[in-house]
Amino acid sequence: MRHIISILIENEAGALSRVAGLFSARGYNIESLTVAATEDPSLSRMTLVTSGSDEIIEQITKQLNKLIDVVKLIDLAESVHIERELMLVKIGTTPATREEVKRLSDIFRGKIIDVTPSSYVVEMTGPSDKLDAFIGSLEEGSIIEVARSGPTGISRGEKGLHL
Amino acid sequence: MELSGGEIIVQCLKDEGVEYIFGYPGGAVLHLYDAIFHQDDVQHILVRHEQAAAHSADAYARATGKPGVVLVTSGPGATNAVTGIATAYMDSIPMVVISGQVGTPVIGSDAFQEVDTVGITRPCVKHNFLVKDVNQIAETLKKAFHLATTGRPGPVLVDIPKDITDPNIKVPYHYPETVSMRSYNPVVTGHKGQIKKAVDLLVSAKRPMIYSGGGAILGNGSNELTELVRLLGYPITNTLMGLGAYPATDKQFVGMLGMHGTYEANMAMHESDVILAVGARFDDRVTGKLATFCPNAKIIHIDIDPASISKTVKVDIPIVGEVRPVLLEMISIIKQGNLKPSAADLEVWWNNIEKWRDLNCLDYDRSGETLKPQYVVEQLYKVTNGEAYVTSDVGQHQMYAAQYYHFDKPRRWINSGGLGTMGFGLPAAIGVKLAFPESDVACITGEASIQMCIQELSTALQFNTPVKIINLNNRYMGMVRQWQEFSYKSRYSQSYMDTIPEFVKLAEAYGHVGMRIEKSSDVEGALKEAFAMKDRTVFLDFMTDRTENVFPMIEAGKSHHEMKLRVAPGTPIDRELS
């Protein structure tokens, strides 16, 4: 099962490589990883998407908690949460397809943020499966490049991951 | 008080109460070595290879319970120490490693003797630091000692660039008394509800087993463990790392378990209905085939590290906490509630165990002329009254030591259990002898292992650490040969050396005493003579049976009740087993 693990980690050199190293050393699956500082500059928040059996996810969270730099973590999959990913897609267009691409982008609430006579760049946010669906709906061969941030997430309600 | 970075490091070690540092100088740590030169409080033990520095410090820690301290230079100094650091990491040994690094302005430029030490050691330390400011040295070292010695212990490395120890840059010195880290708060006492549940299950068991590991020793829980086991009257087995946590000569002790454990310990594990695991981690050498591990047992697991719980074997009642307070709580619940297990059930269980014990699975052929390695260990046990500190290398000799030297006290058996590092024994013996100069220290080794750190014979002379080296010389890498005999139809690929040195001469060349023993009848006399030479390191080269094997054995992928025993096929015992 897919899990989104949110981690508060000391904003120190090497902290990211400790997490990445743990996953490779123990053979855990890592689908995406995003990291940036929080409102407290001494802390970074990392969002990590992984998948595995319940036993493996339990080991992953335990091993992450064991890292000295990890201050706190939650598995978002255990509660109601919101997940968002940012995607930028550059799409090649022809006079015949231009309108259709724009219409599709509108349906998915994308924004066209760069235009040339033969291309668009579409900016889109949403849960990862929505972004997958948009890519799936584009005409084959029209995509020039895709840049995705990997998902980040937050739990619903007033409780949150903080110190 | 204003001090330079190098002086700060030395002062921190003094304030931490460090007696010995084990190290080797080099370019990046020269400022620090100059600071060491100007004082006598912390004694530096100059090894002959950095791997040995880590092993000596590690063994010092295992024997004393105090953290071992290592000092190495950048580049090869650090990489040479990695095997020793990983050894300590796998066995959760408290250790602080200070490594020199190239100056901060040249970090990342592939400077002379530069490696990414923090990167290289990351997977085999509890934590590591790179200090980039002289003002951070004292606090970082305090954190290092705190991390190394609390929670689940382990090695912590502090990498210090050369310019940070510049003798011309002096800053105010203050060594913090305590340190707190918001991201590090190890649990001490266990959950009371869980402990109560565990006690209820334990007392109601019909076929109970207590299985304790290195954590019982590291957590200084030996007395409490012994008290609990005696209170309940239950059988106990120890892992390789746990030997000595419970007195081996006591009748409730059924021997070591696992791959080369006793028949009675493994059979009792297999048949038990409740297992109390104390500071053990269900290592593959203990469990054998996981799918059939203790098939009928409910498992209670006490461990300081939550990640050890349900890692390989699913646990029914986990208790996260230090071994000692949890065991004390268990004892108090049992005493207060006057709880008693069923005497009738226990009697049936013990009768079963005694039947297994009657097989005498550690017996071996004593009739022939050839010198048996087991006999040497038995004689060593006798000559040292079971009181020696025994270090070992890795292989058959290690298993003979574990099987035939009966440890009644914790911290006497010093071996590399997790990583299985050949070369550990001799530097380990030196570390232990420094800690306990009045005690007998024996290094049980083999002719292959000893050659991996034999240069430390030189260190032993310089620092006057008269240890006794018990070399079980079978002219083979015995354990490799044994596996090749069983699994590769005796194709002895590269497990034989035909140019083994003359160890007697080699010992003499290093300034020690060498003895060669070929006959069983000479063993006791030679050992007595060696241990009588209190101030000499003695290398006893025992020419043992070339093809002797370690039994019992659970081959890889088999389970506890499928042991290979030292009995000929078709004998009454063999038939009874099948």
Give a quick rundown of the structure.
The complex is a heterodimer of chains A (163) and B (578). By secondary structure, chain A is α+β, with helices and mostly antiparallel strands.
Description:
- The complex is a heterodimer of chains A (163) and B (578).
- With 163 residues, chain A is of the alpha+beta class.
- In chain A, 27% of the residues lie in helices and 40% in strands.
- Chain A has helices at residues 15-25, 54-66, 98-107, 128-137; strands at residues 2-10, 32-37, 43-51, 70-75, 81-92, 111-116, 119-126, 143-148, 152-155.
- Chain B has 578 residues and is of the alpha/beta class.
- Helices cover 37% and strands 16% of the residues of chain B.
- In chain B, helix 9 runs parallel beside helix 12.
- Chain B is globular, with a radius of gyration of 25 Å.
- The termini of chain B are far apart.
- Classes of the chains: A alpha+beta (163), B alpha/beta (578).
- The A-B interface holds A 9-10, 13-14, 17-18, 21, 25, 55, 58-59, 62-63, 65-66, 68-72, 163 and B 118-119, 122-123, 126-127, 130, 147, 181-184, 305-307, 310-311, 314.
Q: Judging from the principal axes of the Cα atoms, what is the shape of chain A?
A: elongated
Gross geometry of chain B: globular
How many angstroms separate the termini of chain B?
75 Å
**Strand content range of chain A:** 35-45%
Largest sheet, strands/sense/barrel of chain B: 6 strands, parallel
**Low-pLDDT sequence parts of chain B:** 572-578
Topology:
The complex is a heterodimer of chains A (163) and B (578).
Chain A lengths: L1 E9 L4 H11 L6 E6 L5 E9 L2 H13 L3 E6 L5 E12 L5 H10 L3 E6 L2 E8 L1 H10 L5 E6 L3 E4 L8
Antiparallel strand pairs in A: 1-3, 1-4, 2-3, 5-7, 5-8, 5-9, 6-7
Chain B lengths: L1 E3 H11 L4 E4 L6 H8 L5 E4 L3 H15 L3 E5 L3 H15 L4 E7 L15 H5 L5 E4 L6 H13 L5 E7 L8 E3 L19 H12 L4 E5 L1 H5 L3 H11 L3 E3 L14 E4 L6 H9 L2 E5 L5 H4 L10 E6 L13 E4 L2 H14 L6 H15 L15 H11 L5 E4 L3 H9 L8 E2 L10 H11 L5 E6 L9 H7 L5 E6 L4 H10 L15 H7 L3 E5 L2 H13 L5 E6 L28 H6 L1
Parallel strand pairs in B: 2-3, 2-4, 4-5, 5-7, 6-7, 9-10, 9-12, 10-11, 12-13, 13-14, 15-16, 15-17, 17-18, 18-20, 19-20
Antiparallel strand pairs in B: 1-8
Helix pairs in contact in B: 1-2, 1-6, 3-4, 3-16, 7-12, 9-12, 10-13, 14-15, 14-20
